User: Fold this.
Amino acid sequence: MRTIRAFIWGSAIGAALGLLFAPQRGDITRAQLQERLNNWTNQAGSQIDMLRGTATSAIESGRQAVNSTLNQAQGATNPVADRAKNATNTAADKTQQQVGS
Assistant:
């Protein structure tokens, strides 16, 4: 019970002191707070846009690097695959000739 009474008295004293020592009217303070909030919101939005642009360019760079590496790998393996295919076809043709003879 004493705790509740102390809380109520503390709240009342705090509210009275706040009213006595407030530097300006409440509507002016609320307008200033709203303006600050709008500024912070705009700054956050511009930071998000900048991060989005950075992330998009990083993703595109990564995509290009992967595609380049993939093209290099395919370029390196295609001649080997072609030679293997040719060797297999040659062996198959020789085997077919020997079977046909």
Summary: Helices lie at 2-21, 26-100. DSSP finds two helices and no strands in the chain.
